[in-house]
Design goal:
The structure holds 3 protein chains of 3 kinds. Chain A is mostly helical. Chain A has one domain. Chain A has 6 helices and no strands. In chain A, α1 packs antiparallel against α6 and α2 runs antiparallel to α3. Chain C is α/β, with parallel strands linked by helices. In chain C, strands 3-10-4 form a 3-stranded antiparallel sheet. In chain C, strands 5-9-11 form a 3-stranded mixed sheet. In chain C, β1, α1 and β2 form a beta-alpha-beta unit. The radius of gyration of chain C is 20 Å and the shape is globular. Chain C starts with a strand and ends in a 10-residue tail after the last helix. The chains are: A mainly alpha, B mainly alpha, C alpha/beta. At the A-B interface, α1, α2, α3 and α4 of A face α2, α3, α4, α5 and α13 of B. The complex binds sodium ion (2 copies). The site of one sodium ion (NA) has 8 residues of chain B, from loops.
Chain lengths: 175, 461, 334
C-alpha cells in the first residue's frame, strides 16, 4: 500500500499551473488544523477555567475540521497519496499502470465527482434559500457557507483529476 | 434469491475487481456506487424490479457527506494525527532508545525488549501507526543489526511493536469505530487498553524466551555496562515527558474531565510543547507536520467519501439485510458466528486495511453481533458491553492486517526504510511469529471478555 | 390501475423506542395489506440512509420519497417549525390534536412547508404524552443554578433555557449519553421516562425533573414528497391518511400506559429522585417563554401567524377545559 506517483511527471505547462493552484490553496487551508488546536484549547480553558462552554466554539471546531478534510481531497490527488491496493499494480509496466489509471479516472472517478458536484449545488442552494442556521439557539448562522465546501472541494478535485488525466494522456502518447 | 441480492453480490465483486487494478480505493468505492445506481435504475425500468435507485437517490450521498463534516466525534481525527506526527518529530523516541538501551544491555534480547517497550509508550501517546513504524525502524534497526540480531527477529519486533499504536488508545481507528457504531469513544479507548498491554507483554515474553532458547538470534552488546543508578535516572528523565502526555490525554478522558475530542486537541498541543522543550520545534517542522497531517487526514476522509456513497447504494439494494441473513443463518451458535466473522475480517485484512473494513464491513455486521445474545456483564455502567467487546476483538484482528502480506501497511513502511540487502521476504518471515502472538492475544480476549469491559466500567463508575 | 409505490422512509428515532420509533413500524406493518399490495414501506434506522436533520431536504428534493421525523428538527431552516412538535406551556395531547385536526393546525402546518418552498405533503404521525423536563446531576435549587449550565434541550423549550442563562445544544438522541458521560454537557432533556430509560441517563444524573412544562405533548410527522403524493390514487391517499391517524392514537395510548412502572423503578432500584418544579420556577420558565414567543414573533411573520392562531384556539378552548375536566391530583411538595 504505497503512495508514490506512478505517472512520470511529463512537463506540461497547463497541468503544472493547475497543480500549483490546488497545492497553493491546500497550503493555506492546511492551517485549519492548527487553528482547530487553538479553538479546542480555548474551549477547554473557558470550560474549566471559567465554568462556561460556548456552543459557538464547539460548532467552530467542526467547521474548521470540515474545511480541512474536504479541501484536502484535491491536495492528496495532486500528490497522488490516495491509498491504492497495489499487489498486482506494482508489477505492471508504467504503460499499463497509466492505462488502468486512465480507465479509472474516466469510468469511476469522473462520474463520481460530477454527480456529487452537481447534486451538491442544489443542497447548498436549499440551505441558502431558507438562510439555514444552526439548530442550537446560540449556534453559528449561515450554514450554507459551510455546506458550500462540498461543491468547492469537488470542483477542486475535478481540476486536480483533469490535470492528471491530461498528464497520463500526454505520457501515453509520447510512449 | 431476489434480484436485488444478485446486484449486491455483483457490486461487491465489481468493487474487489476494480480494487486490484490499483486505482485509489476511495474512487473505486464512489465509482462503483455510481455504476450500480445506473444498473438498478435500468433494471427497475426494464425488468420491473424494486431497487428504487435513481440519480436523485444517489444525491443523498451529498447529505451523507455533510454528516461527516458536521461530526463532533471525528474532529478528534486530524488532532490525533497531528499529535502523532509531531511526537515523531519531537525527539522523544530517540531519547528513550538511548537511555533504555543501556539499561537493558545485560539482558539477552534486551534491545528487542527496549524496542517493544518504546513501541508501547509511543502507542499510548499517538493515535496512528505508519510514522511510528518508520520511527521505530530508523531508530532501532541499525542498532539491532550491528549487535548481530537475526534479521527476522529485528524486523518482526519493529513491525509488531509499531502497529500497537492503532490498538492502544488513543487510536483513530477506535474513534472511527465508535462513530460508525454509536458507541462511546471513551468505552472503546478504555476497553482496548488491557488487550493492547497484553499483546505488548506477549511480545516481550516471546522475545525473552526465544532469545534464551536460541541465543544466536539476539547476541548481547559487547560494550554492555553494569547497571548504575545514573542509568535509571536517565531512563526516568526520558520517560517523564511522554508519560505526562499520556496522563494529559488518556488520563483526562479516563477521569471524565475532557471529551475525547478535547483530549485530542490537548494532545496535539502537548506534543508540540514536548518538541519545543526538546529543542526540535522550528518553523520548518511546524509546516511539515501541518502538511503531512493535512495530507493524511485527506486520504483517510477520501475513503469516507467513497464508502458513504457505496454504503448508500448497498443499503438501497437491501445489502444490510442480505448479509445479516447470511450471517445469522450460519448454523453454529453465537460463538461460531463470531468466529466466522473474525476469520472473515482476518481474511479481508490480507487485502484491505482497517479504514475500508471499518467503514464498509463493520456497520454491516454490527446489528448481527448485537442480536447474537452474548451475555457480557456491563456492570450497569458500560452501554452495549457485547458490542464494545466485539469491536475490540475486531480491532485486534485488524491490527493484524497491518502485518499480513500482501497488503500490510507496516510491511511497506518498514521496507521503505530498510537497507537494500533486506528483502520483503525477510520482513514477511519476521512478522509471522508476531501474527501468531496477535492471534493468541485475540483468543485470550475472546475467552475473557472482562479484560475489555472491566476498565471502562471502573472508569465511569 | 394503481401505480405500485414503495415508500422508503428514513426515520429520526430508532424504531425500538416505544412511541417515538414504533409508530412508523405500526404503519409499515399494515400498509401493504390495507392498500391491497399497491403500497410498500421500508423503514431505515436513523442515519442508515440519511441523517435525521437531513430528512426534510432529502424528501423535498425527491432524493427519498418519504421520511418520519418531527417538525422541530427544522428550526434552523424554519423558525416556526417547533410549533408543530411541542409548545412550552402549550396544549396537552387532546387539545393539540383538536387544534391540528379540527382547528387551523393542519392547514398552517402544510402551509408552513409550502410557503417555505418545501415540496412535501405532511401528515401527523404520532403524538406522545408529556416528557420529563430534564435529568440533572444536582438538584436545581434556584434559577441561578441554571446559569452557565450546559444542557441538551429541544426546540422552543431550548430557547427558554437559553433565556434562563443555560448554554443549550441540540444533540441527537444516540449521542446524548456519551456527551453526558464525558461531561460535555451537565444535564439533558430527551423524552418520557420509558424512553429516557433506554438511553441510560439514570446512571449519571440522579435528579429527574417534572412536569414537562416544555413538552406537554409531542407531535411527529410523516413527510411524503409532494410529487409522489400527487401521483397516488385516492385510495392510496386515504389508506395512508387513516393509517397515520390510527397509529397516532395508538402511540398516545401506548405512551400513557408505560410510564408509571419506569418512574417507580427509577426511584426504587436506580436511586433516582423524581422532582417537581416549584411554582416559582414554573412561573420563571413561563415568563421566559413569553419573552421568547414575543421576540420570535417580532422576528418571523410566520412564527407570529401560528402563535396567534394557536393562542386564539386555546383561548376558546379554555372555557371547555375549565368546566369539563376534574381537577388533577395535587403535585408533590418539593
Ligand atoms: Na495509540
Ligand atoms: Na494485510
Amino acid at each position: 500500500m504505497t503512495a508514490e506517483a506512478n505517472v512520470e511527471q511529463v512537463p506540461n505547462k497547463f497541468c503544472d499551473v493547475l497543480d500549483k493552484i490546488i497545492l497553493s490553496i491546500g497550503h493555506v487551508v492546511m492551517w485549519t488544523n492548527v487553528i482547530l488546536i487553538a479553538v479546542i484549547i480555548l474551549q477547554v480553558v473557558l470550560r474549566y477555567g471559567f465554568g462556561r462552554g460556548l456552543v459557538v466554539l464547539e460548532e467552530l471546531q467542526w467547521h474548521l475540521y470540515a474545511v480541512g478534510i474536504m479541501i484536502g481531497a484535491s491536495y492528496a490527488q495532486v500528490l497522488d497519496s490516495h491509498i491504492r491496493v497495489d499487489i498486482i499494480h506494482a508489477r505492471l509496466s508504467d504503460k499499463w499502470k497509466m492505462r488502468w489509471d486512465l480507465f479509472g479516472i474516466i469510468f469511476l472517478l469522473l462520474p463520481f465527482i460530477i454527480i456529487i458536484f452537481h447534486q451538491s449545488l442544489d443542497f447548498v442552494y436549499e440551505s441558502w434559500r431558507v438562510s439555514e442556521r444552526s439548530d442550537a439557539p446560540m449556534g453559528l448562522p449561515a450554514r450554507w457557507l459551510i455546506k458550500s465546501v462540498i461543491p468547492i472541494s469537488f470542483g477542486m478535485l475535478f481540476v486536480a483529476t483533469i490535470s492528471r488525466l491530461v498528464r497520463i494522456i500526454a505520457s501515453l502518447r509520447r510512449a | 434469491m431476489e434480484f436485488n441480492e444478485y446486484l449486491v453480490i455483483a457490486m461487491f465483486l465489481t468493487f474487489i475487481g476494480f480494487l486490484f487494478t490499483g486505482f485509489p480505493i476511495a474512487w473505486v468505492l464512489g465509482g462503483v456506487a455510481c455504476i450500480f445506481t445506473l444498473v438498478g435504475y435500468l433494471s427497475d425500468l426494464w425488468f420491473g424490479t424494486w431497487t428504487g435507485l435513481d440519480y436523485l437517490t444517489l444525491g443523498m450521498s451529498v447529505n451523507r457527506i455533510f454528516k461527516f463534516m458536521d461530526n463532533w466525534v471525528l474532529v478528534a481525527l486530524p488532532m490525533f494525527i497531528f499529535m502523532g506526527l509531531m511526537l515523531d518529530r519531537s525527539g522523544i523516541a530517540e531519547g528513550l532508545m538511548r537511555s533504555m538501551q543501556s539499561l537493558f544491555g545485560k539482558v539477552r534480547g534486551g534491545l528487542a525488549v527496549t524496542v517493544t517497550t518504546i513501541g508501547i509508550i509511543l502507542a499510548a501517546s499517538t493515535g496512528i501507526i505508519g510514522a511510528s513504524v518508520v520511527l521505530l525502524g530508523l531508530l532501532s534497526l541499525p542498532a539491532m543489526l550491528k549487535q548481530g540480531y537475526s534479521k527476522t527477529l529485528a524486523l518482526g519486533t519493529i513491525a509488531g511493536s509499531g502497529t500497537l499504536g492503532i490498538l492502544i488508545p488513543p487510536s483513530i481507528m477506535l474513534v472511527i469505530m465508535a462513530d460508525q457504531l454509536g458507541l462511546s469513544v471513551g468505552d472503546l479507548f478504555m476497553g482496548a487498553v488491557l488487550p493492547g498491554v497484553i499483546l505488548g507483554l506477549l511480545y516481550i515474553s516471546y522475545i525473552l524466551i526465544y532469545s534464551m532458547i536460541r541465543p544466536e538470534v539476539a547476541p548481547l552488546d559487547p560494550d554492555r555496562k553494569p547497571i548504575e543508578l545514573r542509568m535509571l535516572w536517565d531512563v526516568f528523565k526520558h520517560i517523564l515527558p511522554p508519560a505526562a502526555l499520556i496522563v494529559a490525554v488518556l488520563g483526562s478522558i479516563f477521569a471524565g474531565i475532557t471529551t475525547p475530542t478535547e483530549a485530542s486537541g490537548v494532545g496535539a498541543l502537548g506534543a508540540t510543547i514536548l518538541a519545543a522543550v526538546n529543542k526540535r520545534l522550528n518553523w520548518k517542522v511546524v509546516v511539515e507536520v501541518t502538511k503531512a497531517c493535512f495530507n493524511t487526514t485527506a486520504y483517510i476522509f477520501a475513503i469516507f467519501l467513497g464508502a458513504t456513497c457505496f454504503a448508500l447504494v448497498l443499503r438501497s439494494l437491501g445489502g444490510d439485510e442480505f448479509i445479516e441473513r447470511i450471517l445469522t443463518g450460519i448454523p453454529l451458535g453465537p460463538y461460531g458466528i463470531m468466529v466466522v466473522i473474525l476469520i472473515a475480517i482476518f481474511m479481508l485484512g490480507f487485502f484491505l486495511d482497517w479504514i475500508e473494513i471499518t467503514l464498509i464491513v463493520l456497520p454491516l455486521i454490527a446489528p448481527v453481533v448485537s442480536n447474537l445474545g452474548f451475555q457480557i456483564e456491563g456492570y450497569g455502567v458500560v452501554e452495549n458491553p457485547e458490542l464494545v467487546w466485539f469491536v475490540v476483538l475486531i480491532a485486534v484482528s485488524l491490527q493484524t492486517s497491518f502485518l499480513t502480506p500482501p497488503v500490510g501497511f507496516a510491511l511497506f513502511y518498514l521496507k521503505g526504510i530498510c537497507p537494500p540487502e533486506i528483502e520483503l521476504v525477510d520482513i514477511y518471515k519476521g512478522v509471522i511469529p508476531f501474527i501468531i502472538l496477535q492471534l493468541i492475544g485475540l483468543i485470550i480476549v475472546i475467552l475473557w471478555p472482562q479484560l475489555v469491559i472491566w476498565l471502562p466500567s471502573v472508569a465511569y463508575r | 390501475a394503481e401505480k405500485k409505490i414503495m415508500l422508503k422512509v428514513p426515520v429520526c428515532f430508532a424504531t425500538v423506542l416505544p412511541g417515538l420509533g414504533t409508530t412508523i413500524t405500526y404503519v409499515a406493518d399494515r400498509i401493504e395489506t390495507m392498500s391491497g399490495g399497491t403500497l410498500r414501506m421500508k423503514v431505515y434506522e436513523p442515519g442508515k440512509l440519511v441523517a435525521p436533520f437531513e430528512i426534510l431536504g432529502a424528501v423535498s428534493s425527491g432524493k427519498i420519497n418519504a421520511g418520519y421525523s418531527t417538525a422541530g428538527y427544522w428550526a434552523g431552516k424554519i423558525p416556526a417549525s417547533p410549533f408543530f412538535t411541542a409548545v412550552p406551556f402549550g396544549p396537552e395531547a387532546g387539545e393539540y390534536l383538536a387544534w391540528l385536526w379540527h382547528g387551523n393546525g393542519m392547514k398552517l402546518y402544510q402551509e408552513m412547508y409550502d410557503s417555505h418552498g418545501y415540496n412535501v405533503k405532511v401528515l401527523v404521525l404520532g403524538i406522545i404524552a408529556p416528557e420529563t423536563s430534564g435529568w440533572f446531576k444536582e438538584p436545581v435549587k434556584s434559577a441561578n443554578d441554571l446559569n452557565g449550565l450546559r444542557i441538551r434541550f429541544f426546540g422552543l423549550g431550548g430557547q427558554v433555557m437559553e433565556k434562563m442563562g443555560a448554554s443549550v445544544s441540540l444533540i441527537p438522541g444516540g449521542e446524548i449519553f456519551p456527551a453526558l458521560e464525558k461531561k460535555a454537557i451537565d444535564a439533558t432533556e430527551f423524552s418520557m421516562p420509558a424512553i429516557d430509560e433506554r438511553l441510560g441517563f439514570y446512571k449519571i444524573s440522579k435528579y429527574n425533573y417534572y412536569p414537562g412544562w416544555h413538552q406537554q405533548a409531542t407531535v411527529f410527522e410523516l413527510l411524503i414528497n409532494k410529487d409522489v403524493w400527487n401521483s397516488m390514487s385516492d385510495r392510496q391517499k386515504v389508506v395512508i391518511e387513516e393509517l397515520c391517524k390510527a397509529a397516532t392514537v395508538d402511540a398516545f395510548a401506548m405512551t400513557e400506559a408505560i410510564q408509571p412502572p419506569v418512574m417507580k423503578k427509577n426511584v426504587e432500584e436506580r436511586g433516582v429522585t423524581n422532582m417537581y418544579w416549584s411554582d416559582d420556577m414554573l412561573a420563571k420558565y413561563k415568563a421566559a417563554w413569553e419573552e421568547v414567543a414575543a421576540e420570535q414573533s417580532a422576528k418571523d411573520p410566520y412564527f407570529k401567524k401560528v402563535w396567534d392562531d394557536l393562542s386564539a384556539f386555546r383561548e376558546d378552548y379554555k372555557l371547555w377545559q375549565t368546566y369539563g375536566f376534574l381537577p388533577r391530583p395535587e403535585p408533590p411538595n418539593m
